[in-house]
């Protein structure tokens, strides 16, 4: 069941291409300047609502989605090509959340995107920026820089997809009350119909035409049991689909000996699952009037609900008798709801109320290098310098070039990292970790106060000072 309306996928934006160090090599140009091009930006991760999809079953086996990497820069000032974007298609009504235990881009479990309209496309993760080539570092004092940047690594995360069907009207009730029969009677949908409980395990959608210009989408939802708000009978899997419906049609099994109690039980489950569902407009449809037992109990049921301020309709979904009255009543409630939303009344939470993780990632990338924290492990004498801007700068530094190392030393000095380490008591020979790089501290008044550099998890290349 979880494969239908829940899925967990891994998404990774493309890495940016590396910049390149190159110089002009032309006849009669003995002192050609730098000509290294910039790397291309990595591909983005987009989420798109596809009307051809009605479940999350395609994600049962297809879990990993990666955008293409940007090409590296080339000589003669040629920039690398952009990485290929990756578009993840989901059914309309899908909510994207950050998976628990992920990288924590904006907080575990937070809503990132909501896609409700077919064809709607939203940016989930932006691709990494391309590294600059040496032509970008040319200055009046350094006309032949031997310096280039690595491409920025693309953001990655595990995301949870949750499907909440987008329908105007939702049909609810106990199992085997006749919900699927009603949907087949009023629309062209052909759900599975049988005389046993839980025939419907997946919600079905149908379009109900009322006139040449008027129609509405109706969803037949699986049956509810007492305790559904606690997950009994896969209650959570079913109840979430009622949240996006504007109007509910409550189908009551007229042959039940406790029709009123079953009606009240379902209403209670809706309220316990989400209190806002208790305030949704609804229509009560007393079904199976073609059976004598149900016809005999109809007046008693009607009077009981009328005493509660609820008007009930009688119908027979099997013979289609009275079904049009139920649909017209639901349509009038739907129109009144739309008018309330238009006039500024309280309505459903729509697109744009969630956080845009793409903007959050871009904001993290633009974080100033001066914002950092310093922590120390007194037992191992290891200092950890953390900061989004500083970590990004470290990752994009190409340590193969001596000028890149010197540039990084200047950044540590200018951003205040060196002074912060001194103020907190760094000693000669202590290990300092910045991003994926670590080095042994060398106490010196000169700006180049770093000892032997070596890579962190990715290798052990050493640059002697």
UniProtKB/TrEMBL annotation:
Its cofactor is Mg(2+). Residues 167-335 form the OBG-type G domain. Keywords: GTP-binding, Magnesium, Metal-binding, Nucleotide-binding. InterPro entries: G_OBG, GTP-bd, GTP-bd_Obg/CgtA, GTP-bd_prot_GTP1/OBG_C_sf, GTP1-OBG_CS, GTP1_OBG_dom, GTP1_OBG_dom_sf, OBG_GTPase. The keyword Plastid does not apply. Residues 1-166 form the Obg domain. It holds the Pfam family DUF1967. The keyword S-adenosyl-L-methionine does not apply. It comes from the Eukaryota. Residues 361-443 form the OCT domain. HAMAP family: GTPase_Obg. PANTHER family: DEVELOPMENTALLY REGULATED GTP-BINDING PROTEIN-RELATED (PTHR11702), GTP-BINDING PROTEIN OBGC, CHLOROPLASTIC (PTHR11702:SF44). This is GTP-binding protein Obg. The lineage of its organism: Eukaryota, Viridiplantae, Streptophyta, Embryophyta, Bryophyta.
């Amino acid at each position: 069941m979880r494969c239908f309306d829940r899925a967990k996928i891994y998404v990774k934006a493309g890495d940016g291409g590396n910049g390149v160090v190159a110089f002009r090599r032309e006849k009669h140009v003995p002192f050609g300047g730098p000509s290294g091009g910039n790397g291309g930006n990595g591909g983005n991760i987009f989420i798109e609502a596809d009307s051809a999809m009605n479940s999350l079953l395609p994600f049962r086996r297809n879990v990993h989605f990666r955008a293409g990497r940007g090409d590296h820069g080339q000589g003669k000032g040629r920039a690398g090509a952009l990485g290929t974007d990756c578009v993840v298609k989901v059914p309309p009504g899908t909510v994207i959340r950050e998976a628990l235990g992920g990288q924590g881009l904006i907080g575990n479990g937070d809503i990132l995107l909501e896609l409700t309209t077919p064809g709607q496309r939203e940016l989930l993760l932006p691709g990494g920026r391309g590294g600059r080539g040496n032509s970008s570092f040319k200055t009046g004092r350094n006309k032949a820089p031997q310096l280039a940047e690595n491409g920025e690594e693309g953001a990655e995360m595990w995301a949870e997809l949750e499907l909440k069907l987008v329908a105007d009207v939702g049909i609810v009730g106990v199992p085997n009350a006749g919900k699927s029969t009603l949907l087949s009677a009023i629309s062209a949908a052909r759900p599975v119909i049988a005389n046993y409980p839980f025939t419907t395990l997946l919600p079905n959608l149908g379009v109900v035409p009322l006139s040449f210009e008027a129609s509405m989408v109706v969803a037949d939802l699986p049956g509810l049991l007492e305790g559904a708000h606690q997950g009994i009978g896969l209650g959570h899997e079913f109840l979430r689909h009622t949240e996006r419906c504007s109007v509910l049609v409550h189908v009551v099994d007229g042959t039940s000996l406790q029709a009123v109690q079953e009606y009240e039980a379902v209403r209670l489950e809706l309220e316990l699952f989400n209190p806002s569902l208790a305030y949704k407009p609804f229509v009560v449809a007393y079904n199976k009037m073609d059976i004598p037992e149900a016809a005999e109990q109809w007046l008693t049921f009607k009077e009981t609900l009328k005493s509660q301020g609820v008007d009930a309709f009688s119908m027979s979904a099997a013979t289609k008798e009275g079904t049009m009255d139920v649909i017209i009543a639901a349509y009038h409630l739907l129109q009144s709801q739309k008018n309330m939303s238009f006039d500024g009344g309280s309505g459903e939470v729509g697109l744009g109320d969630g956080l845009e993780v793409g903007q959050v990632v871009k904001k993290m990338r633009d974080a100033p290098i001066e914002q950092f924290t310093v922590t120390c492990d007194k037992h191992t004498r290891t200092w950890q310098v953390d900061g989004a801007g500083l970590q990004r700068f470290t990752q994009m530094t190409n340590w193969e070039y001596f000028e890149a190392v010197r540039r990084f030393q200047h950044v540590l000095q200018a951003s205040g990292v060196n002074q912060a380490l001194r103020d907190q008591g760094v000693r000669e020979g202590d290990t300092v970790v910045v991003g994926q790089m670590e080095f042994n501290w060398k106490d010196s008044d000169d700006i180049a106060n770093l000892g032997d550099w070596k890579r962190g998890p990715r290798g052990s290349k050493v640059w002697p000072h």
